[in-house]
Design brief:
Number of helices: 13
Strand content: 5-15%
InterPro entries: Ankyrin_rpt, Ankyrin_rpt-contain_sf, ASPP1/2, SH3-like_dom_sf, SH3_domain
Number of strands: 7
Order of helices and strands: HHHEHEHHHHHHHHHEEEEE
Helix content: 25-40%
GO molecular function, one term: p53 binding
Structural class: alpha+beta
Organism: Stichopus japonicus (Sea cucumber)
Distance between the termini: 39 Å
Protein name: Putative apoptosis-stimulating of p53 protein 1
Shape: elongated
Largest sheet: 5 strands, antiparallel
Subcellular location: Nucleus
Oligomer: single chain
Length: 357
């Protein structure tokens, strides 16, 4: 066996390929999200996000009505003031960005009171009705004197429905919609998959179904959290065992803090000892039991001559684990060739073959 060179880097982190979906932009979903997912997601809401901005066509019509220059107005919460004049002249003087000529600059701001006065002015003007009848695309609702357009249907993204059903525990919906998803292992913009959702919401029936359907049990989110990390952070031994025995990688590490699933077990919560001891036991036995057989759960291309290439599902035999000073690389054999493999990209058991391929 070759000695591990001093310049050998730490074992690689598998970079997740993220499929972008606008799923967790809804603040209500964030409030109802299970604790493990909340730990992984950051959401900052703008202070002005709760306010409705004036639509551009209404704003332009307003300035035409008042005879003032157009500008990009934003709505800002300010203490109400008593205008010295009424009507559009009062709005001019109260506007924060008004110039001496009575015109607004591009960064002019309307207060709530000014905004209400502007809407009241528009409601008494034929301009509002003109705006609502502008030419352009129409909705699917039936209008007076017009027949409903035929063949128009609203269709939601199947993956978004799968993510939602997995989080809400809708088993029948998961079984139905998963047939319409090209790849049920795909994720949202945080890298979170349907399996992440089902685990964190403690829906064991859905978890078992997704695993047996062949979704990727090692799919990492944007910080490297795999479903096994989520199950371990819940101290859910039943789900942890199910994931490990179907190809879950116990040495997978997160990106920010480089922690394995065992290190994510919650010490202050019930079930910690059983979950932590089980994961540590698997770590010790892996590469020893079953004649040292391990399976690739990611694809790895060798960067040095003394490393082995492997892909998801490849079988290898560990000949020697790393020394005390270097445990992230194991010496193994594959197809008659020997070399180093990164331990955080292999598992004790093979993954379930996907049914959707």
């Amino acid at each position: 066996m070759a000695a591990i060179s001093a310049d050998r880097p730490a074992s690689p982190i598998h970079d997740p390929t993220l499929v972008i979906h606008q799923y967790y932009k809804d603040t209500d979903r964030l409030q109802n999200m299970p604790r493990p997912l909340k730990k992984r997601i950051s959401f900052t809401e703008s202070k002005d996000e709760n306010f409705s901005f004036m639509r551009s066509e209404y704003r332009d019509k307003l300035f035409q009505q008042t005879g003032k220059a157009k500008g990009n107005l934003s709505l800002k919460e300010e203490p109400e003031k008593t205008p010295s004049d009424s009507g559009s002249e009062g709005i001019e003087k109260e506007g924060k960005g008004a110039t001496e000529g009575g015109e607004y600059s591009n960064d002019a701001i309307l207060t709530h009171k000014q905004y209400k006065e502007a809407l009241a002015m528009l409601s008494q003007s034929p301009i509002l009705s003109q705006s609502t009848t502008r030419a352009g695309p129409h909705g699917i609702l039936k209008r007076e004197g017009k027949s409903r357009r035929k063949g128009v249907r609203v269709r939601f993204d199947p993956l978004a429905l799968l993510l939602d059903a997995s989080l809400e525990g809708e088993y029948d919906q998961v079984r139905r919609i998963i047939q319409e998803v090209p790849n049920p292992s795909d994720a949202n913009d945080e890298g979170i998959t349907a399996l992440h959702n089902a685990i964190c919401a403690n829906h064991s029936k859905i978890v078992n179904f997704l695993i047996l359907f062949g979704v990727d049990v090692n799919s990492p989110d944007s910080d490297g959290w795999t479903p096994l990390h989520c199950a371990a952070s819940c101290n859910n031994l039943k789900m942890v065992r199910a994931l490990v025995e179907r190809g879950g990688c116990v040495f997978a590490t997160t990106i920010s803090d480089k922690e394995s699933p065992a290190e994510k077990c919650e010490k202050e919560e019930d079930g910690y000892l059983g979950c932590f001891e089980y994961l540590n036991d698997i770590q010790e036995k892996m590469g020893v039991v079953n004649s040292g057989t391990v399976f690739g759960v990611y694809t790895y291309e060798a960067e040095k001559e003394d490393e082995l290439n492997f892909k998801d599902g490849d079988q290898m035999k560990v000949l020697k684990k790393g020394d005390e000073d270097e445990t992230e690389w194991w010496w193994a054999s594959k197809d008659g060739r020997e070399g180093y493999i990164p331990r955080n990209l292999v598992a004790m058991y093979p993954r379930v073959k996907p049914l959707f391929n």
